[in-house]
Amino acid sequence: MRMSSLCFSFVCGVVCLSGSAVARADLYSPNQAGTIGLNTMPNARISGKDQVWAGGSFSDPYAHGFIGFNLSDRLDVTLRQSAEISGAEQDPKRFYPGIDFKVKALSERRNRPQVAIGAQGAWGHKRMAGEYIALSRRYKGFDFTAGAGWGRFGSALHVDNPLAYLGDHFSQDRALDGEAQNGPSDWFTGKEIGLFGGVEYFTPYKGLSVKADIGADRAMAEKAAFDFKPAAPWSLGVNYKQTLRNMAQIDWGVAAQGFDRIMARISLSQMMSKLGKRPRTPDADFHQSAADQAVLHYQNHYSLPAQIGAAAAHIDKQKQQPITRFLPANLGLRGPEMTIVNGDMTRAQNGGGSSAEAWRNVSINALANRYPNHDRGRGKTAPLSLILDSQISLAEDEYIALQRTSVLAQMRAPFKMLFMDVGGGLRLNLSDNLHELEKHSAPPPYYVRGDVYNYTGALLALDNLYASYGHSFQNDVHVLATAGYLEEMFAGAGLQILHRPFGERLAVGAEGFMTYKRDSQSDLNLDVHRGATLSGRLSTYYDLPRSDMTIKTSFGSNLDTLWGSQAGLIKRFDNGATLEGFITISDVGDMDLFGGETTPDHGVRLTLPLGGVKGIPDYASARLSVQPFGRNRDQFVNKPQDLYDMTTPLSLAHITKNWHDVAVNAE
After folding, report:
1. What value, to the nearest 5°, has the Cα angle with vertex 391 and ends 51 and 265?
2. pLDDT band at 412; cut points 50, 70, 90
3. Which residue has the higher pLDDT, 223 or 31?
4. Please, which of 129, 247, 274, 527 could form a disulfide with 519 given CB 3.0 to 4.6 Å?
5. DSSP code of 489?
6. What pLDDT score does 508 carry?
7. CA nearest 295: which of 324, 316, 318, 260?
8. pLDDT digits over 509-539, tens only?
């Protein structure tokens, strides 16, 4: 038996037989590719709750950049860009992007290790792609890991693929390089697999740990491509975790790979709840339509319970009536009738009671409420939003990392005479390097978003300008019609329909748009090109229990007139931050300069409220998107108003999750 197999057998025995100790998620750090792990290999550990981390590493011949997110206590997702590079100061020769994930299959118990299933480059370039099953076991200060790897993680070919007995999919030959993108059809395939193992020792010195591992990556693709001499399969290194202000942590790692290579890594991590802060004390926008009834107009920058608490306390202070039936509204869309004891809100805010006590007296009627005929639920205020919008790409596998930064100033206002709402926004282009896209991208048959660089030249441009009409039928069927300049690149009109029963987890929607490409050479991009494009799709939404996550799936016709589907996750955090991720599933992709297809269109968008930070307006936020630029396939219009998002503050999940905010005025 080979030496690495003997080492694996020893580590696997230790993992299975050692006694268990408490494994704290905040102790662990990323490996060289950005996944929580050892030096070069992953382990079975998941990052801390609601953690986000970003960093980079260098190990000949690659430099890795990554940003990772904890989406639940069982799921980590990492966006990674790997650059082929000869030295730390050399320009990259080629990029190999990918989406990595790890799922905890079993939690550690006294009689079993923690088990995780993961993939590097699950969607991305084949050269970096590999899957694994890892087992980790804690014993006092030691955390042992053993695992089996496929693809890149299994190129040592130690044993036959045990999954081959489950079907022909797993026994097919595995290509370790090539321009075709890696995907589910490649997962866990190959005639043979590799074995890996390692250990991390947490020393008595705070923050300092020692990592050692032996892997099964033999760099077969690199040896075939440019006569590369790989490092030894084992590594030994240290990691120092330093806690900064506001509970942020920085990890410094260095390791020897054999006797002739050095790996260096740095990463910064933080809990999502510490990155942004929602304003807490709203000036509630409401008016009383009857003696005991009030229409509450939702304001985007606060939770609905915070606005209910402020409105009820105000009514109680005026000593108008002890109980109020609130009718929440969001630009013509309505929520359930909520009967509130006004005094409960006052007591919760002055310390004489609590939000939990107030909840016991709340009555919700999701079917009975009707807005008065003379009041369609339009508020008195014109909500303003100021957004610092940054987009970077870790997935342009042809040439260079791209970025764009701009500021969006947007406003929505009611137009009561026609029962419509109007909205608009200006975009201030601050910086970008999208001209590189024009230099290096392969010319497509036609452009959808491939000419985005033409829209960044003007310092100031009209982002959107539209009119909309929203209406709710019995609180579970909502419609929204929109027309005008819908987004930076397209104008047109569309209709959204959503069936979202109050208190239910499943919602179903449909939407259709007729769009015209805006002329980037005209003033403020106001002119439009002839020729309309019809697009539409069906969508489902499912709120996962106890996770604050929503699974979204869509299928339909895109702006390129081809059919495709999309799957995504939406995660909402206690501080009002939102994390969205998606990936497209299509038979046809964009072409790259090397004759292959680019990675499937995918992205992550993080929105952070900043209004709770001292000195920053309530309506300010920051948005970071990690998504490819200039794609022409699998694109859909960026709606100025999303019907599902607009009904979320009126949902039972939002109300119960944020109910503690009814007492925020006490702060």
Report:
1. 50
2. confident
3. 31
4. 527
5. S
6. 96
7. 324
8. 999 999 999 998 888 889 999 888 999 999 9
DSSP class per residue in 587-629: S---B-TTSSBPPPPEEEEEEEE-TTSTTS-TTEEEEEEE--S
Helix (H) or strand (E) holding 6: helix 3-17
Query: Using only C-alpha atoms, what is the Rg of the chain?
Result: 27
Beta bridge partners of 389: 406, 623
The angle at the Cα of 310, spanning 309 to 313, to the nearest 5 degrees, equals: 80
Instruction: Give me the phi and psi of 598, to 5 degrees please.
Output: -70, 170
| Tens-place pLDDT, residues 420-454 | 788 999 999 999 888 887 776 656 656 788 888 88
Strand duo 460-473 + 420-432: pairing: antiparallel
Q: Tell me, what DSSP letter sits at residue 651?
A: S
- Angle 46-70-639 from CA coordinates, rounded to 5°: 155
Per residue in 10-19, pLDDT tens? 455 555 555 5
CA 542 from centroid of its chain's CA atoms? 16
Most distant CA pair in the chain: distance in Å?
Answer: 85
Compute the distance between CA of residue 264 and CA of residue 254 in angstroms, rounded to an integer. 4
Q: Work out the end-to-end distance of the chain between its first and last CA atoms, rounded to an integer number of angstroms.
A: 66
Report yes or no: 496 and 643 within 8 Å, Cβ to Cβ: yes
The tokens describing 258, both together, are 């054999």
Tokens of 365: 């009627």
Q: Minimal CA–CA distance to 569: which of 116, 71, 36?
A: 71
Helix (H) or strand (E) holding 52: strand 51-59
- The full 3-state SS of 249-295, as one line of letters, equals EEEEEEEEECCCEEEEEEEEEEEHHHCCCCCCCCCCCEEEEECCEEE
Strands 62-72 and 620-626, by their bridges, are unpaired
Q: Measure the CA–CA gap between 155 and 387, rounded to whole angstroms.
A: 46
Asked if 97 and 120 touch (Cβ cutoff 8 Å), the reply is: no
Counting every residue written for the chain, the total comes to 667
Strands 533-544 and 549-557: antiparallel
Report residue 329 as tokens. Answer: 């509204």
CA atoms within 13 A on the CB side of 54: 5
Q: Is the pLDDT of residue 1 over 50?
A: no
| Alpha-carbon gap, residue 144 to 137, rounded angstroms | 5
Does pLDDT of 665 surpass 70?
A: no
Could you tell me what percentage of the chain is helix, strand and coil, using 3-state DSSP and rounding each to the nearest 5? 15, 45, 40
Percent of the chain with pLDDT strictly greater than 90: 36
C-alpha span between 438 and 623 (Å, rounded): 25
- Angle 330-332-333 (CA atoms, 0-180°, nearest 5)? 60
Among the listed residues 244, 269, 270, 267, the one whose alpha carbon sits nearest the alpha carbon of residue 55: 267
Task: Record the tokens describing residue 290, joined without a space.
Answer: 């009857």
CA 448 to chain centroid: 24
> Hey, what domains does the chain have and what are their CATH numbers?
3-271 (2.40.160.40), 286-372+655-666 (no CATH), 384-636 (no CATH)
Average pLDDT, the chain: 84
Residue 563, amino acid:
W
- Residue 166, judged by CB atoms within 10 A of its CB (0-12, 13-18, 19+), counts as exposed
DSSP helix/strand/coil, 417: helix
Q: Residues 652, 655, 660, 665: what is their CA dihedral angle, to the nearest 10 degrees? A: -160
Could you tell me the two tokens for 201?
């020792």
Residues 425, 463: contact at Cβ < 8 Å? yes
Residue type at position 246? N
Whether residue 61 has a cis bond before it, omega within 30° of 0: yes
Residue 309 confidence (pLDDT) above 60: yes
